[in-house]
Write a structure and sequence with these properties.
Helix content: 25-40%
Low-confidence stretches: 298-306
Oligomer: single chain
Number of strands: 14
Number of helices: 11
Strand order of the largest sheet: 4-3-5-13-6-14
Length: 306
């Protein structure tokens, strides 16, 4: 029984067909079929129902029961692979959503470079939904995200929360405190920060969104806000530096979205070297601005969210 066979098992469950799973794994359908047949032979029972003309492959009862075992086998395989990292114990592997990596992490990384330990950093961007896979497969130690979800054997720990701020192009004048009702959605630079923000946004501006421009990352936000009459809503960590631009002003909302919460994801009961050093520096930097509310509590995710 190999890890590639277990991977094939989960890919078929994910995509619901041999062809789609094979495409995602970049192998041929016969090769994928052979992996499953080998796995079933070793186990001594079928994992999938195979019916002629059936569009979506379904698990057998034994196949359903095998899912939890397969997860444990993957964990053991990862632990075996992690042994090679013993020679790289000075390496901290981090992933983060774009807004955090652009506006919060640079100063954290600078401070880490001044620590007495020789801390090496490997960083990669991620969307929140991707981060769980990265942590589970071991390509990163911890990931900073804005959307929490359930994932077996991982814990999601709240780090801090920050208010959402209105940013406007200075071509149009606004009071210090602005009502969402006074904002024209056709001038909005829209970013879907998290599900809570989306619900708030749908309430005030309707669905579908009548934006002027849409982006799923905020790299171009500074540029788009240079356009006449545009506006955007962003978390404080993003809004504070952007509001210093000569063509941008910031405002409070009288009925704002809920604060954005940033979490970090790691494996349950897995000790990460330099984790506490990283978190100490992060909390110290955040404490310099009263707008950040640091969350000290941790929640271990053992069951799916309701």
């Amino acid at each position: 029984m190999t890890n590639s066979e277990i991977e094939a098992f989960f890919e078929i469950i994910k995509w619901g067909s041999i062809s789609a799973a094979a495409d995602n794994l970049f192998i041929t359908q016969p090769a994928l079929t052979r992996r499953i047949q080998t796995l079933e032979t070793e186990l001594g029972y079928p994992l999938f129902n195979r019916k002629k003309g059936q569009k979506r492959i379904e698990l057998t009862e034994k196949g359903k029961a095998f899912i939890s075992v397969a997860h444990r086998l993957q964990d053991l395989w990862q632990e075996a692979k992690d042994i090679k990292e013993m020679d790289h114990s000075d390496l901290l592997k981090i992933s983060a959503i774009n807004s955090v990596s652009s506006y919060i992490l640079p100063e954290i990384f600078r401070s880490l470079s001044h620590e007495p330990q020789n801390i090496r950093i490997r960083f990669q961007h991620c969307h929140s939904f991707e981060a769980y896979d990265y942590v589970a497969e071991g390509s990163v130690n911890l990931a900073l995200i804005s959307d929490e979800r359930y994932y077996p054997n991982l814990e999601t720990i709240p780090l801090f929360q920050e208010p959402m701020i209105l940013l406007t192009n200075t071509s149009q004048s606004y009071p210090d405190i602005v009502s969402p009702e006074s904002l024209d959605p056709h001038n909005e630079i829209f970013l879907p920060w998290n599900p809570e923000f989306q619900i708030w946004h749908d309430y005030w501006f309707g669905f579908p969104v009548q934006y002027h421009a849409f982006m799923d990352q905020m790299n171009l936000l500074e540029y788009f806000l240079s356009w006449k009459n545009t506006w955007a809503i962003a978390p404080f960590s993003v809004a504070a530096p952007i509001s210093k631009l000569p063509y941008v002003s910031s405002h409070q909302l009288d009925a704002p979205p809920s604060d954005r919460i940033i979490y970090y994801v790691k494996k349950i009961n897995r000790e990460i070297r330099f984790e506490q050093t990283f978190l100490r520096i992060l909390r110290h930097e955040l404490s310099k601005s009263p707008e950040f509310k640091i969350i000290d509590g941790a929640r271990t995710v053992d069951e799916p969210f309701e």
